[in-house]
Each structure stands twice: as structure tokens, then as C-alpha cells.
Amino acid sequence: MQPIKKIESRTVVLVNKDIDTDQIIPARFLTTTQREGLGAHAFAEWRFDKNGELRSDFVLNTAAAADCKVLVAGDNFGCGSSREHAPWALLDFGIEAVISTSMADIFRSNALKNGLLPIVVDENTHQFLISHPGIDVTVDVAARELRFDAQVIEFELDDFSQYCLLNGVDELGYLLEQQASIEAWENERS
Question: Of all helices (H) and strands (E), which one includes residue 21?
């Protein structure tokens, strides 16, 4: 994982509510344990027509969405099954943060464990972002702030997840960082 301190990007808006993990990455692409390459299949049912051609009318296929790292999505994002491939696909597609009014708990947990920042905002903030697609935002992980249009919105992020994001480590990486302390503790008790 790469450390995430700040994300500066335009937003791309996908207003659909109840976007589940099978819509994020369809089950037929879950044949791998590798993260790389899954972005090509993110939102495959919506991005491609039945002939495998990109749908020009789908928001993520537009020129305005190119290089956007922040996805603003409808309520209840990431519901459905607990597939870890969903945050992998979003990250490989280039999304680094998802903003919504609510997210499924398992998706949120999987996202944080894999370096994707889920941000839950209030309804007024969400409606502003939905109605201003492509707005420039700054996500400051250290300050736990979302900034746009002279507004500063604080978001919840637990200390452990914040540490992992800022340092580019997952849970195992964090434990490995503690190896000297663990060994010292074990040696004192043996």
C-alpha cells in the first residue's frame, strides 16, 4: 500500500443508491487473488455494452471522469457480499476515496484495510457534492478533513486506520513494525 496523506482531485459522481459489491466488481471476475487488473472490470455491467464496448453515456467512461480519484456515490455504497475485491477494483481503477452518506460496514472495513478511504458525510454536504460533479476537493487524512469550495468538513476515521493510511501499511504491516517490541515482551516473560 502507498501512504495516503492528501488526495487532491476532481470528483466523479455516481448518484445510484445501494451500489453493491457485485455491481462494483461482478462475481465472474473474482477468479484471482491479485489486485492488479481488477480496475479494468470495475462497474463492468455499467461501463460496457453486451459487445464489450465502452458505453459513452456512463459517467466513468466520460472525459470529465478521467483521472478523478474521488468518487461521490449514492447512499448505502458497498452493500451486498463481503468481497475484498471491491476496494481492490476501485483502487486499481484509480479511485482513492469514496464519499457517501452511508456505507456498508464490511465494505468500509475492507476499504480501510486496503488503502481506500471511505468518507461518510451529512446529507447537505452530499447533496452539494452530487450537484457539483467535477468539483475540486482535497482530502486531508492527517486532519480528517474534506475541503472544497471554501468548506471544511470533518469526517470520522479511527486512529488505527488513520495510522495505517498515513504510513501505507495494512494490519500485518503494522504488526511487523512492532516485531522488536513483541520480541522484547516475549523475552521478558520467558
Answer: helix 21-24
- C-alpha cell at position 26: 461482478
Looking at residues 11-24, what average pLDDT do you find? 96
Among candidates 136, 153, 135, 132, which has minimal Cα distance to 144?
153
- Total domain count, the chain: 1
Tell me the C-alpha distance between 13 and 34, whole Å.
27
Scan for cell 486532519, then name that residue: 143
Average pLDDT over residues 150-178: 91
**Residue 36 belongs to domain with CATH number:** 3.20.19.10
Terminal Cα distance for the chain, rounded: 35
At 185, the amino acid letter reads: W
Continuous H helices in 79-170: 85-93, 105-114, 123-130, 159-167
Mean pLDDT of the chain, nearest integer: 93
The answer to the question of residue 24 being in a domain is yes
In terms of residue numbers, what domain contains 76?
Answer: 6-189
Q: What is the mean pLDDT of residues 143-162?
A: 97
